[in-house]
Amino acid sequence: MTDETWSDETKAYTRTSLEDMDFVSRMKRICFKHKGGGFAYILGEDVLRGHYALHAMATDEAVETFNSVDELLAGNWVLD
User: Fold this and answer.
1) CA distances from 47 to 4, 27, 38 (A)
2) How many helices (H) and strands (E) does the chain have?
3) Is pTM, for the whole model, over 0.85?
4) H or E stretch at 78
5) Residue 3: its pLDDT value, please?
6) Integer Cα distance of 76 and 40 in angstroms
7) Is 65 helix (H, G, I), strand (E, B) or coil?
8) How is the chain split into domains, by residue range?
9) Interval 6-53: pLDDT, tens
10) Rounded CA gap, 35 and 3, in Å?
């Protein structure tokens, strides 16, 4: 893992997109990337319920779960 974080612009784009229910409702899987490497997804239906459970792209295994967009961003995950 790295101490670096994403740019404010990238984090703002992620936040705005996840708050756009029209965008979210059209997505089965919403893809994310981590600053330290790695890719995961959250189901669109979970985001609509305010549940941010990341699943590994390759295995579908649960990676991390967050209670808010703020926590997700603090964990260094942004839209891919």
Assistant:
1) 26, 10, 20
2) 4, 5
3) yes
4) strand 77-79
5) 59
6) 12
7) strand
8) 28-79
9) 999 999 999 999 999 888 889 899 999 999 999 999 999 999 999 999
10) 9
